[in-house]
Amino acid sequence: MKLLIFGAPGxxxxxxxxxxxxxxxxxxxxxxxxxxxxxxxGTELGKKVQDYLAxxxxxxxxxxxDVVKKRVQNKxxxxxxxxxxxxxxxxxxxxxxxxxxxxxxxxxxxxxxEKISARRICSNPKCDGNYNIADIHKVINGIxxxxxxxxxxxxxxxxxxxxxxxxxxxxxPETIKERLQIYKEQSEPVLEYYKKKKVPxxxxxxxxxxxxxxxxxxxxxxxxxxxK
Length: 228
Description:
alpha/beta, 8 helices, 10 strands, 19% strand
């Protein structure tokens, strides 16, 4: 099973990706996580991408494609998170493998800005712990959002590995708005690209507790024949 998980920054791709990994034994390949690990390790790749990430800009296609190519070749059971973000990347991926389905997670900018600003992640680059201190309850365009905080058992300590929780340096309102604008301008065409190729789409709103959204997602995946 080869899946893409798609959606605007902060929509919950990391959380749902981790749940899909655990439920179906998928290898989760998240380009953002890979780049942050490289930055922390001070590698040549990390130095190349650091300025782009700090400014909320997309890393150049040739760099991202090379990284993904090394991860997906000869593999048939993975979930890609954060790639492809441009049509050029999607075309490059087509040359490497065939995607079985796209998972599209929906939300609104207003919600995403509030959520991302409150996001806290595990400082351990080998851990995928994700938390959020925002408590959101509102209705937008007829869709009700009930998003309670996702807090660790111990204040600012990861439940999974015991490491300290941190806020990503790019999780501030101005950079978030920039990232959302970049998403609209450069990444949304990727969805149209895959729709024209008739790749199956599974769409869901991230408007309630992740556990509830995830079970709804799994049910839609079953209905689409992606999983049994």
